[in-house]
C-alpha cells in the first residue's frame, strides 16, 4: 500500500500520482484501471501512462482521505499483469476557514459597582481547520469595542470588568465587540467577530430622597379618623427590591395624632388621622417624616445612611361643626308608676366652634310612634309624658338630637337608654292554681302530696315569697302547708288512715296565702282543689307528680287531654269525608247511562206530522228559530199557495186566512198512501200556486220558486254526512235544524211559522175591503171539485 498526500483545494486535472507496472515496456500494451472512493468522479487515471489526476477541488473539512485501488491488465487479453494494489490519498489541511461564533450574539449581566476583574461572560469561537496541523485552528481573542470598561482574555475568551464603580443609574447597557483570529493572531490569519450585550444589574447603592425639605398639607378639622388625608413620596433611583422603603413619623406628639403607611405599588407614604382634629384647640401640626430603605446593602454603607427626612406642616381648616354631647351615650332610670312629667335625666351638648352657638334639643321620632318622654328644648331635661309600667316595657331607647340655633343644619345625635325601675305593684299568685292537685289513695300521713310555686310579675327583688295558712281559717284536718323557704311550699297529708274514693269525697280544698317580699309586701289568698283517686306513679322521674289511672295512658304517650281530643276530632272528620265521597261515587255509578248498549247507537229520527197551532200557538216553542231570515221584514205580507186543478190530495181540505186580509188560501193534505220508495220531487210537486196572487204580494216576496227539490235534498244529505264524520261530536246522534224554506216560491212561505214575534194586531176594519176578492175565491173553490172529477189525471 502506498500513501500519497495532497493539499486540499488543488485545481482540477493536476497530476496527483503516477502508477507504473514492471511489465510496462512503454509500448502501450499495459492498461491501468482505478477503482475505490471517488474513482471516475473525483480521481481520473490515464489508462496508458497510469497518471492519476484530480477532477475536482478537494476539501479536507468535507473528507480528509480517500482509499483507491489500482490494477494493470494486458490490453489484448485483459489479464492482470500484477496483483491489485491499494493506496490512500490524504488531503492536507490549509487555512481556508475563519473562526466563527455559532451562538452569537450573546447577552450577559453584571452587577453595577463591581470590582475590576469581575468575570462577566466567556465566548468560544470554533475553526473548521485541522487543529493538529500548523496554526490554522489556533485562535486568539481580542476586544474591538467596549474599552475601557471591559477586557477579554486572549486565550480563554473570558470577558472581565476593566473599570470599577460602573453605575447603572448613569449607564446600564454596553455593547462589547469581540474578535477571534486564527494563525495565533499572526498576519495573514483569518478572523471572525461577535457582539456581547452586557447589562448592569441594580444594587442598593442609592438612598431614598425627598425632592423638598418641607411640605404643606391642608386638612379640614372634620376629616374622618382612619381615612387618608394626604400622600408624600420619596424618590429612589434604584429599582425593584432595592427601591422599597418605609415611612415613619419621628416626632412623638405628631405620631399620636397622625399615622403614615407605605403603599407598596406607588411607594408613597399615606398619611391618616388617628385622632380627630380640632381647629379651636390647635391650628397647625408639624410632622417629621423619615423614609428609609427596607433592604440596605452593607457593602455600600460607606456611601452614607440609606434614609432621608423631611417636614410636613399640616394646617387644620376651620369647619362649622355640629354640637358635641358631653357623653357618647346616656343611661337613665325612672321608677314605674311615677306621675307624668317626672324628671328622668339631662343631656348636655355644646357648640365646639368659636362662635359658641346656642343649642336646641329634640327627640327623634321618624316612625311617628307614641313617645313616652319629652325633652326641654333649651334645658335638655328629659321627662315622662305618662305613667310607665315596667311589666309592660322595662327599657326604652330614644335618640336625642341637638341642633345649633345659628345653623340648624348642624345636628348631632346621641342614644339615650332609660330603664324603668320596679316597684312592688303586682300581687303574687300560685303557679297553676287552676289545676286540681291529685291525692292518691295510698298517700300516708306526713307524705308530701305536691310542691307548689308562686309567680309574681315583679322582679326578683320583690319576689321573695312566703306561704302560710290564714289564721282566721280553721285548721284543715286532712292537709297542711309547709313553707320550704326557697319560694316553694309543700302540701302535706295529715291523715293517718289515708284516703279512699269509696269512703271519702272526691274533692277537697285547701286555703293558703302567698306573700312577696316587697315594700310594702303584697299577698293573695288562693284555694287549692285536691282530688282523690287511684294513682299510677309516673316512671319518668322520681319526683314527678302522680296522675290518675284514667289519665295514665295519655301521660304514658306524652299527650295532654286537649291533644287527644283534637286527634279524635280529626279522625271523625276524616271518616265523615270518606263516607260522603263513597256515597257520591255510588250515586254517580247508579245513574242510567245515556247509551245503554251498542245496539242503541243508531239514528233515532222522530217525525211529527204537525203543522203547529197557527198564530195562536205562541207557547209551544220559539218559532223565531224556524223563520226564513230573508223573509223577516217589518210588517211583512205572508203568502200561501193553493194548488189549482186536479189534485192528488183530494181529502181533508184546509182553509187559512192571511193576517193582512189580502188573500185566502186553501190547502189540501194528501189522503191516499204514497209510495215513498219511488218518490221523486220532480214527479210529485208538493205545492200548487194559483194565479190569483196580487202583484204587490208577489213583488214583496223575496224568495224564488221551489223548483229544485233535488238540490235541497243533496244539501241536507251533505249536512248529514258532515255530522256523521265529525269526530269532535258526542257518540250519540244529534238533531240539527236548518231554518231554510227553499227558494222555489215567489210568494214566500205558506207556513204560519214565518210570522214575526212582534207582528202588530190585525185591523179588522180593513176586512170590508177584502169582500170582493173573497167572493171570487169562493167561486173558484166551488168550481174546483167539479174540475177535479172531470180531469182526474191532472
Strand order of the biggest β-sheet: 1-7-6-3
Determine Rg (CA atoms, Å). Answer: 68 Å
- Decide which structural class fits the backbone: mainly beta
Tell me the β content: 25-35%
Number of helices: 6
Q: Into which percent range does the helicity of residues fall?
A: 10-25%
What's the mean pLDDT score? 77
Q: Describe the main β-sheet briefly.
A: 4 strands, mixed
Low-confidence stretches: 1-5, 539-543, 625-708, 756-760, 790-794
Cα(first) to Cα(last) distance is: 156 Å
Q: Total strand count, please?
A: 43
Globally, the shape reads extended
Task: Give structural notes.
Keywords: Calcium, Cell adhesion, Cell membrane, Glycoprotein, Membrane, Metal-binding, Repeat, Signal, Transmembrane, Transmembrane helix. With 794 residues, the protein is mainly beta. The N and C termini lie far apart (156 Å).
Amino acid at each position: 500500500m502506498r500513501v500519497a498526500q495532497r493539499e486540499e483545494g488543488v485545481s482540477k486535472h493536476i497530476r496527483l500520482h503516477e502508477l507504473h507496472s514492471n511489465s510496462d515496456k512503454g509500448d502501450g500494451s499495459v492498461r491501468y484501471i482505478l477503482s475505490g472512493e471517488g474513482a471516475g468522479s473525483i480521481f481520473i487515471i490515464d489508462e496508458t501512462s497510469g497518471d492519476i489526476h484530480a477532477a475536482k477541488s478537494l476539501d479536507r473539512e468535507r473528507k480528509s482521505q480517500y482509499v483507491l485501488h489500482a490494477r494493470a491488465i494486458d490490453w489484448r487479453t485483459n489479464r492482470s499483469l500484477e496483483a491489485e494494489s491499494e493506496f490512500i490519498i490524504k488531503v492536507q489541511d490549509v487555512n481556508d476557514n475563519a473562526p466563527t461564533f455559532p451562538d452569537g450574539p450573546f447577552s450577559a449581566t453584571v452587577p453595577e459597582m463591581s470590582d475590576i476583574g469581575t468575570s462577566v461572560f466567556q465566548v468560544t469561537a470554533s475553526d473548521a481547520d485541522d487543529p493538529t496541523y500548523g496554526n490554522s485552528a489556533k485562535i486568539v481573542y481580542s476586544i474591538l469595542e467596549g474599552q475601557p470598561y471591559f477586557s477579554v482574555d486572549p486565550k480563554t475568551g473570558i470577558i472581565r470588568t476593566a473599570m470599577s464603580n460602573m453605575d447603572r443609574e448613569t449607564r446600564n447597557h454596553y455593547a462589547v465587540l469581540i474578535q477571534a483570529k486564527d494563525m495565533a493572531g499572526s498576519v495573514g490569519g483569518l478572523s471572525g467577530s461577535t457582539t456581547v450585550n452586557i447589562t448592569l444589574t441594580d444594587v442598593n447603592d442609592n438612598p431614598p430622597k425627598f425632592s423638598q425639605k418641607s411640605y404643606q398639607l391642608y386638612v379640614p378639622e372634620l376629616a374622618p379618623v382612619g381615612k387618608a388625608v394626604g400622600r408624600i413620596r420619596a424618590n429612589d433611583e434604584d429599582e425593584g427590591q432595592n427601591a422599597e422603603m418605609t415611612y415613619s413619623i419621628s416626632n412623638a406628639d405628631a405620631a399620636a395624632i397622625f399615622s403614615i403607611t407605605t403603599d407598596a405599588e406607588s411607594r408613597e407614604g399615606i398619611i391618616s388621622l388617628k385622632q380627630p382634629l380640632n381647629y379651636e384647640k390647635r391650628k397647625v401640626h408639624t410632622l417629621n417624616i423619615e423614609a428609609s430603605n427596607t433592604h440596605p446593602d452593607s457593602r455600600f454603607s460607606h456611601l452614607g445612611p440609606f434614609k432621608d427626612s423631611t417636614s410636613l406642616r399640616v394646617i387644620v381648616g376651620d369647619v362649622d361643626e355640629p354640637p358635641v354631647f358631653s357623653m357618647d351615650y346616656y343611661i337613665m332610670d325612672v321608677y314605674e308608676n311615677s306621675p307624668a312629667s317626672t324628671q328622668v335625666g339631662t343631656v348636655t351638648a355644646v357648640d365646639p366652634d368659636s362662635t359658641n352657638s346656642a343649642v336646641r334639643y329634640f327627640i327623634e321620632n321618624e316612625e311617628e310612634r307614641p313617645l313616652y318622654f319629652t325633652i326641654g328644648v333649651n334645658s335638655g331635661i328629659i321627662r315622662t309624658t305618662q305613667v310607665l309600667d315596667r311589666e309592660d316595657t322595662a327599657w326604652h331607647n330614644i335618640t336625642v338630637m341637638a341642633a345649633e340655633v345659628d345653623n340648624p343644619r348642624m345636628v348631632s345625635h346621641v342614644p339615650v337608654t332609660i330603664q324603668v325601675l320596679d316597684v312592688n305593684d303586682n300581687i303574687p299568685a300560685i303557679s297553676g292554681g287552676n289545676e286540681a292537685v291529685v291525692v292518691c289513695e295510698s298517700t300516708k300521713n306526713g307524705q308530701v302530696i305536691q310542691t307548689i310555686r308562686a309567680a309574681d310579675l315583679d322582679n326578683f327583688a320583690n319576689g321573695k315569697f312566703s306561704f302560710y295558712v290564714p289564721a282566721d281559717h280553721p285548721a284543715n284536718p286532712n292537709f297542711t302547708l309547709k313553707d320550704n323557704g326557697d319560694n316553694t311550699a309543700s302540701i302535706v297529708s295529715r291523715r293517718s288512715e289515708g284516703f279512699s274514693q269509696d269512703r271519702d269525697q272526691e274533692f277537697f280544698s285547701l286555703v293558703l296565702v302567698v306573700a312577696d317580699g316587697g315594700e310594702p309586701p303584697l299577698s293573695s289568698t288562693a284555694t287549692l282543689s285536691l282530688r282523690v283517686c287511684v294513682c299510677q306513679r309516673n316512671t319518668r322521674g322520681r319526683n314527678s307528680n302522680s296522675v290518675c289511672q284514667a289519665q295514665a295512658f295519655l301521660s304514658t304517650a306524652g299527650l295532654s287531654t286537649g291533644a287527644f281530643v283534637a286527634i279524635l276530632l280529626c279522625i271523625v272528620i276524616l271518616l265523615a269525608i270518606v263516607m260522603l265521597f263513597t256515597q257520591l261515587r255510588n250515586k254517580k255509578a247508579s245513574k242510567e247511562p245515556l247509551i245503554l248498549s251498542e245496539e242503541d247507537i243508531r239514528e233515532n229520527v222522530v217525525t211529527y206530522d204537525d203543522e203547529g197551532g197557527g198564530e195562536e200557538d205562541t207557547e209551544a216553542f220559539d218559532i223565531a228559530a224556524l223563520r226564513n231570515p230573508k223573509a223577516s221584514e217589518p210588517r211583512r205580507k205572508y203568502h200561501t199557495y193553493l194548488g189549482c186543478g186536479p189534485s192528488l190530495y183530494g181529502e181533508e181540505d184546509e182553509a187559512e186566512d192571511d193576517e193582512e186580509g189580502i188573500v185566502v188560501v186553501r190547502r189540501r193534505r194528501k189522503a191516499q198512501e204514497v209510495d215513498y220508495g219511488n218518490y221523486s220531487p220532480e214527479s210529485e210537486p208538493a205545492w200548487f200556486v194559483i194565479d190569483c196572487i196580487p202583484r204587490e204580494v208577489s213583488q214583496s216576496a223575496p224568495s224564488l220558486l221551489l223548483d229544485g227539490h233535488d238540490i235541497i235534498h243533496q244539501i241536507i244529505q251533505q249536512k248529514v254526512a258532515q255530522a256523521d264524520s265529525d269526530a269532535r261530536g258526542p257518540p250519540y246522534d244529534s238533531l240539527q235544524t236548518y231554518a231554510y224554506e227553499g227558494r222555489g216560491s215567489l210568494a214566500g212561505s205558506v207556513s204560519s211559522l214565518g210570522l214575526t214575534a212582534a207582528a202588530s194586531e190585525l185591523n179588522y176594519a180593513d176586512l170590508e175591503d177584502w169582500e170582493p176578492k173573497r167572493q171570487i175565491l169562493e167561486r173558484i173553490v166551488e168550481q174546483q171539485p167539479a174540475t177535479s172529477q172531470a180531469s182526474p189525471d191532472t
